[in-house]
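Incident log entry.

Two folding requests arrived from the same account within the same minute. Monitoring flagged them as a possible duplicate submission, but the sequences differ. Recording both here for audit purposes.

Request one:
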Amino acid sequence: MKRKLVLTMIALGCLHTVLAQQYRWNVGVDYFFDNTEYDGSSYIDSETMNGVWLNPLGRIVWDGRHSVNAGVNLLKIPGMDKALDKVDVTMYYQYKAPKILFRAGAFPRKEVLGDYNNFFFKDSVNHFIPLIQGVFVRLGDERTYATAWFDRTGYATPDKREHFFVGLSGKASKGIFFADFQSYMFHYSNTRPPTKGVGVSENLQLQASAGVQIENRKGLAATLAAGTLIGYERDRRSEMPLLHKPVGFIARGDIEYCGLGTKNLLYAGAPRMKLFDRFGGDLYWGTPFLQSRFYLENEWYVRIIESDRVNARFNCNLHFTEGKLLFQQMLTVSANIGTLNESVHKGLIFPWKRLFK
């Protein structure tokens, strides 16, 4: 009798667990068109980056906070002969509470590292390498938080070098005032087994700033901040060692009203990326314009559509460097449908139309 009672309780527990699970799904499309006109630059060539990602994803949720997520990311580059140009896999565990977010696996970078600018990750990285493959944890809310993350970007093989990121960031807010920082260390190692003459290199960056942030219900948002960008670049090869510690001033000035806005990012200080001739983009994932003593990115944009299911944005970016003015135009469109978004569907919103009311 006792045995039957125990078995019955176990069966009821298993049934409760199954019934408590929630099954959700989402299918998303991310399109980007990024045209750069960098003729005359010593640091980067002109190019047009264009592609569309199809991202179906499934999620199993239990206890309201735990979930397992899995999906596939398919990239098609218009004009290429292949049916698919790249295939990635999204697959991660997530724990989400009001002031805790933890992820382990392969998951979208844009969802967790939105506070990192192009000094850390240039546009091509965001377009073609959209996943973190590692661990991320955030404690706190949007106004005050601390994060730590690890991203393994390359595994050592006989013909490929090992490399990975370790990063920390944080923010503290009091009224309209805030202080924040973003940082990472990129470790670029050897092959396995080691290749003779190949050593270990690192690229560390820390950006720290303080300023004010204003946002109201009438569609106005503004940020003004200043601080420093500190670097540590090292090639540890014994026959050709090099160590560089660049320091510079940074300033940010952003303002948006009713979907129309501008973002401004300034660097002035010691030239960076001293090892670029040796390693190029293998060691440096930020914008190559940081090789200059002075760089200003002036971004103008319009949020064409913004809703819980569709977002479209057009950018016209100006780059001031080496005494030249360079241009960039970018269109991004994201659309998704499914049950991942628990909010009530609000329909399409055109923020810029509020200017004409």
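Request two (distinct sequence, not a duplicate):
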Amino acid sequence: MTRPKRWTTAVLDVQAPGGWAVVQSDQGFLKDSNGVLFPREWLKRQDLSLMHEHGIGHFDGEPVYVQTLRDAQALDVEGAQWQTLRQFMLADDAEVFQMLGYAAQISTWAREHRFCGRCGQPARQVPGERAMYCPHCDLRAYPRISPSMIVLITRGDEVLLARSPRFLTGVYSTLAGFAEPGESAEDCVRREVMEEVQVRVKNIQYKGSQCWPFPHSMMLGFHAEYASGEIVPQADEIEDAQWFSIHDLPPLPASRSIARYLIDLYLAQRSGSVEPVLPGQADG
């Protein structure tokens, strides 16, 4: 039996009273001993330096809003602390991370569209719609989603993994990159792989997708087989890239990432073991 989702998105009226709120600043999200949800009416009495507020959905059936602060203020709450979105990703509750990931994306979009991109006049929220509207020139701005590909390249019992200078020390991952205007996801796979490691691939197969709210990516996951070429890492982008035996792998990405899913899926297929479930896709 499918378990009802605890988190669902919705456009909520910010003029409505009550509900819960998550609090965001440049330091992340506020959390105390009870979690990340705070009574919204109580927050309104805390004299916060609020940049904006948006209604984002329901958690366990209750309305939830995101309140974005101009700076990371301290609240008089025992045990309250700021925690980054990546820290929540590594925690136990996947649906809390989904909620905060969505909140972060809506907050980023709202912050970047406070003013019209066409005429520069102040924009305002559209009631009942996830849009910012400029009454001066009639332009509407909707939340941005940036499609990108991520691909595991294999050669029998070997996988091609690389590391960026931005990665944690020792960690290797799959290749990834943003889609360019006018190209298909498969074209993006071919181009990014060639740019990053000078390798040609074949038999490209789509494996699934994952929202990646850092800040607003949609990761399209693929598996591809090696066709030809010698690895030549792209300067300034790829610190190192190698073929690794599936029996002797380096430190890998976090278990909830689609990069790790692509790797674990291939390992399961080679060994005949149970295939993993893409994070966020389980029925319950």
